[in-house]
From TrEMBL:
Coiled coil: none
Amino-acid positions noted as binding GTP in the UniProt annotation, renumbered to this chain: 27-34, 76
Originating organism: Candidula unifasciata
InterPro entries, A to Z: P-loop_NTPase (IPR027417), Small_GTPase_ARF (IPR024156), Small_GTPase_ARF/SAR (IPR006689)
Swiss-Prot/TrEMBL keywords: GTP-binding, Magnesium, Metal-binding, Nucleotide-binding
GO MF term set: GTP binding; GTPase activity; metal ion binding
PANTHER family hit by this protein: ADP RIBOSYLATION FACTOR-RELATED
The protein's name in its UniProt record: Uncharacterized protein
UniProt binding sites for Mg(2+): 34, 53
Length: 189
């Protein structure tokens, strides 16, 4: 966005809040993408069960500050059918799922992540990684951060750890996501 637009942004910024930003939730199957979306939309206590997503779910979430986020929760096995969703994406939530799952950030997932990071439509999108932890895995955690750092280089990104079925933590994901989106929008303007 050029300098001319930047000055206009201050004047029009209240309206920007009404315009939803677009966020994708991606990640391997069964990592908890839909569970996270439902946690925001309905609250964790209202979630009785979650079925695997066959293609995608979409919903608008309103954050505590009033920002609207159009969230696309894509099926973990979406593969190439993901491409039509990329255009206009302002941010990506990458669900890593439960720490320590058998195939956690193995080679195929790293390749998938790197491909995603190379997508032109996502070049300015911040990435928020979400991991679910049930124990104290601090040692391996540093290894995870190092690997992500290598992959993400100059990208705006963050990592949030959540506890299972925890509303506070699900809300925290939304807060951090909103911060990342705000920072990126400001940096671009
Ligand atoms: N207890 C608990 N279970 C969770 C949590 N998140 C996900 N699950 C469970 O993990 C399973 C998979 O969750 P989903 O949200 O369907 O996973 P997904 O990533 O959307 O999977 P796909 O749609 O197949 O890509 C479900 O049985 C959920 O109930 C969580 O925070 N706590
Ligand atoms: Mg799902």
């Amino acid at each position: 966005m050029g300098a001319a637009c930047a000055s206009g942004l201050t004047v029009f910024s209240p309206n920007l809040k009404d315009h939803p930003v677009k966020v994708l939730i991606v990640g391997k199957p069964s990592t908890g993408k839909t569970f996270l979306l439902y946690s925001w939309k309905y609250g964790v206590d209202a979630i009785l069960s979650v079925e695997p997503t066959s293609h995608f779910n979409v919903d608008t979430i309103t954050t505590q500050s009033g920002r609207k986020i159009l969230v696309y929760d894509l099926a973990g096995n979406i593969g190439l059918r993901m491409r039509p969703f990329l255009e206009g994406t302002n941010g990506v939530v990458y669900m890593l799922g439960l720490y320590g799952r058998d195939d956690f950030l193995q080679e195929d997932e790293m390749i998938f992540l790197q491909q995603l990071l190379q997508e032109r439509d996502l070049e300015n999108a911040p990435f928020l990684f979400v991991i679910r932890k049930e124990g104290n895995e601090n040692e391996a955690h540093q290894d995870l951060l190092d690997r992500l750092q290598q992959c993400l280089k100059q990208r705006v990104w963050d990592l949030v750890e959540i506890r299972s079925r925890n509303q506070e933590d699900a809300n925290l994901v939304l807060t951090v996501l909103e911060d990342l989106l705000n920072n990126t929008t400001n940096a671009e303007s």
